[in-house]
Write a structure and sequence with these properties.
The structure is a single chain. The protein is α/β, with parallel strands linked by helices. It has 12 helices and 13 strands. The longest helix is centred in the middle third of the chain and has 19 residues. The protein is globular and about 60 Å long.
Length: 335
């Protein structure tokens, strides 16, 4: 449903008045825009999602196909010890797009589009030698072994991501995924001192990627992880169908630790900008404590967002974060 149809322009204006001017403007521009039929269909489809799952490591096709989740984010490839083995076949992807009752689920492929990973097919063996790496390949990520910063604005990198049959996005689309879950849009933050136009370059890159995908499949979904400040850039809001946020209430500084209230409020304002503009908002919290899980689930749902709880390694799958008739959440054995 179009946003104006759902709330009425007057209602949207009243809500937008409570937000910062730039965020209010983004909502009103989107509300008054006339989306094409494919955009409306995409956003109606993802708006129906009431629960989701996020499983990147040690994924089993049978485990995904047996899961009840409305939406699942998985890797498009099978890897062992962070070494590429193979891609999922279109038949395997088709199987994972069905739930046990035969109904369709949305299946998104995780795609780190602004950080290089040495276990991807595009990685060249010569790049294992620092002296032979291309000049657009930057420093290793100290938190995630095998990941590297990239000058994502460079055409050499962007050609690896989309634009040819062997490019990352093109391969994902050929496999039959419903869309992509774009990680590291927030990489622009790391480049701001070296490249003052880093944010603008990220906006342009994401927008071009989305345009390229929709030219080939107008119903292809784009969900961006984190980087919620980019919601204030109109091309990003136009490009995405949803946004996912990690560590909204807990864990930014230390595991299980509540985030600073001002940081939470900053993120909430931006995520509500997205939601009020008709974009689905997903939240993943990496928690073990049952009381904190219950508190987070309640707060996330009250904001109109969709929660999921997982271990940070994302190496197993928890049940949907949906309470039963008594209001009790299921047990989350994967911690």
């Amino acid at each position: 449903m179009a946003l104006v149809g759902a709330l009425g322009l007057a209602g949207i204006t009243a809500i937008a008045d409570r937000l910062a001017p730039a965020r209010a403007e983004a909502i009103l521009v989107q509300a008054q825009a006339q989306p094409d039929d494919a955009s409306v269909a995409r956003r109606q489809r993802i708006d129906s999602v009431r629960n989701w799952g996020y499983w990147l490591s040690s994924v089993e096709v049978s485990g995904v196909s047996a899961a009840p989740h409305d939406l699942m984010v998985i890797d498009s490839e099978v890897s062992d010890s962070r070494s590429f083995e193979r891609e999922y076949t279109p038949a395997e992807v088709a199987l994972m797009k069905r739930r046990p009752d035969g109904s369709a689920r949305i299946l998104l492929a995780y795609l780190s589009f602004a950080e290089a990973e040495h276990y991807r097919p595009y990685w060249q063996p010569d790049w294992d030698d620092p002296a032979k790496r291309p000049d657009w390949l930057g420093r290793p990520n100290r938190r995630w072994a095998g990941n590297f910063a990239v000058k994502y604005w460079r055409p050499e990198w962007q050609r690896l991501i989309f634009g040819a049959p062997e490019s990352y996005l093109d391969r994902v689309m050929a496999q039959g995924f419903d869309g992509v879950y774009l990680d590291r849009a927030d990489a622009f933050f790391d480049w701001r001192k070296l490249n003052p136009s880093a944010r603008r370059e990220m906006v342009a890159f994401l927008s071009r990627l989305a345009d390229y995908a929709r030219q080939r499949n107008p119903h292809f979904l784009i969900v961006m992880q984190n980087a919620e400040e980019l919601i204030e850039d109109a091309p990003v809001l136009a490009a995405i169908d949803g946004i996912a946020k990690e560590d909204l209430f807990y864990g930014v500084r230390r595991a299980e630790e509540p985030n600073k209230p001002e940081d939470v409020e900053w993120s909430l304002q931006l995520l509500q900008t997205a939601r009020l503009a008709g974009r689905k908002v997903l939240v993943v919290e990496y928690l073990k404590d049952a009381d904190k899980i219950a508190t987070a689930a309640k707060r996330i749902s009250e904001e109109g967002f969709v929660p999921y709880f997982a271990p940070r390694q994302l190496n197993c799958l928890n049940p949907p974060a949906v309470p039963d008739a008594s209001g009790r959440l299921p047990d989350f054995p994967c911690r």
